[in-house]
Recover the amino acids of this structure.
């Protein structure tokens, strides 16, 4: 009988920002306020901006001949594109939610 070595799945997602490092730190749903949501949205926009700036920097380095690796340019550009699409989708959902709240009759 041969046993397969299965790596633990936990270390695979430790580097992602969506995984809480300590579950005791996460606030309960009733403790989440507008400031927390606003900070998350601001961080999302800042991260998207950083990825866009990095993609532009990689393109400039490649155009000037400082880098000869087109793969890095394409990876940075794709990351920036995906981040922008994600940010736009979140923005659309927030606007739709705002419009729904504003159309409610009291």
């Amino acid at each position: 009988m041969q046993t397969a070595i299965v790596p633990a799945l936990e270390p695979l997602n430790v580097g992602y920002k969506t995984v809480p490092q300590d579950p005791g730190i996460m606030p309960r749903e009733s403790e989440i306020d507008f400031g927390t949501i606003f900070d998350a949205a601001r961080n999302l926009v800042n991260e998207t901006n950083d990825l866009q700036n990095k993609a532009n920097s990689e393109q400039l380095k490649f155009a000037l001949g400082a880098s000869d690796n087109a793969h890095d340019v394409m990876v940075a550009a794709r990351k920036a594109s995906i981040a922008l699409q994600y940010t736009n989708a979140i923005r659309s959902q927030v606007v739709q939610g705002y419009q729904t709240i504003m159309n409610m009759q009291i």
Q: What stands out?
A: The mean pLDDT is 79. DSSP finds two helices and no strands in the chain. The two ends are 69 Å apart (CA to CA). Residues 34-102 form one domain.
